[in-house]
Amino acid sequence: DTSLASYCKSTETDCRTGKMSGKGPQLISRLYGHHTKEINDAIYVDAVAGGDDGGIISIGEDKQLLIWLKRDSGGYWPSVHEELSAPASALEYEPTDRRVYVGLATGVILTYAVQEDFNAITYIGSLAAHKGRITGIKVDKARGLIVSCGRDKMILLHALETNHVLSSYAVPAWVTVMDYDPSAPNIFVGDYGGRVHVLKLAKDTQKIQLIAALEGHNGSIRSVEWVRDIGMLFTGSSDNTVIMWDIGKCKGEFFTLRGHKATIDGLAYSHQTKQLITAGSDKKLLVWDVGTNVWKMSPDWQKSDKCQICEAPFFWNVEQMWQEKKVHVNRQHHCRLTGKAVCDTCSPKESTICTMGFELPVRISKEAEALVTEEDLVARCRAFPLGNVSTFMRLATMSKKQVMITGSKAGEICVWEMGADILSTGGVSVTAEDSDFTSAQADVAAEVSEFSGETKSSDGPRVTHTTMYDTGYDGGEGADLLSQLDD
Question: Which of 181, 364, 386, 413 has the fewest CB within 10 Å, making it most exposed?
Fold first, then answer.
């Protein structure tokens, strides 16, 4: 297919020199021509019918459920084509009994049994679970549970065999994404208002209980992944940022990663290399070295009516200008390294601060220039171009190779090989020209917010509210908060 050429020319961009260095994700399969609208999800199924090659199950806004199998030609072709009654918005596959669970925009969950050779499916039943679009489904076969969430602002727990409602929990806004940890068990949900809710199931009653409510993003949560091995919760948002919530160490720390210039459409953690992979609407794939580095929390922005370095009043400080008998037109900026409120004269330069997640150059004050270390300048992510805006992203292992599966609004699915040159340590940062929302624009937004009495700062997400149970835990290194709560 000649149209593959534009996709295969994916190379790593050294954003400081503008040169290409190394290979990017290589497209190995492109599934198209059958879905006619946006792909909402796709799952890779390993070793179909005992063979070496697996299949791909996909759903979309075109009311279709497809199962793709690899043919002798090397390409994929649908072996199952199921017409649904409404757009399919959520997908789950249970490999032990080969069950496919499909959530619809009408709030119904459909269950299908897949034939061993994946050439046919059998309808099992339906569950009228939600009153709105379903946005997430997880099946806990060991406990006999179906966990689901939707735009009716509800997280529901159903019995797998009887479909009876066991428990429910309501959040303030649409639930947009969900992850589930069966070992605890814990539920992680993100909502349209930018909140992240960490929930648990009570041991005896299986009631859904709140562990923590994390407010940090300034936009809706678009992706969430809990990595129990390292005690980190990763969330991506429409505010163009990714937050690493360090839940495992119980210190209340979080680290904001700023490298994309558009909505975070998907993220996935590679356990092999301890790296985080994020895909954004800016058609870029970023690989972050999150497991091998020490991170610093960015400071809170300080409030002041005058520059905290030269003491010149900002333009709204009429009282000081009256006392000095002098008119000032100084705008307020903030140093991203110290958090101080400064004027333009005292913050003429920009710098990356990669240890705080600032992969794009941001404003720093004169006095902070000497505080920027060599470690702060070492890039912690690498950027690779993607051919399309991704509607979702998943990592999988295909024929002993780590691959990435993405979908598009045009109805096509791409399978990318993630080579060793991509999932490796070291890298180059994204470029300053890539950022539409510059530090100057951020300062303008901060000025408007502060002048109007709002408290939200525009340097990125802040934790504004956290509710946690008292566990009596001393916050030892590497310990897991969630397992402590289970105890």
Answer: 181
Residue 19, both tokens? 């040169």
The number of beta carbons lying within 10 Å of the beta carbon of residue 30 is 18
- pLDDT, one tens digit per residue, over 349-372 is 999 999 899 998 999 999 999 999
* Contact (CB, 8 A) for 241 and 258: yes
Helix (H) or strand (E) holding 324, with range, is: helix 318-324
First to last CA, the chain: 56
H helical segments located in 413-474: 439-451
Burial pattern 152-184, b for ≥16 Cβ within 10 A else e, equals bbbbbbbebeeeeebbebebeebbbbbbbbeeb
Would the pTM count as exceeding 0.85? Answer: no
H or E stretch at 486: helix 481-486
Q: What angle (nearest 5°) sits at the alpha carbon of residue 181, between those of residues 154 and 210? A: 45
**Amino acid at residue number 74:** G
CA distance 414 to 200: 35
State the amino acid at position 276 in one-letter form. Answer: L
* 88 and 100 Cβ atoms separated by less than 8 Å: no
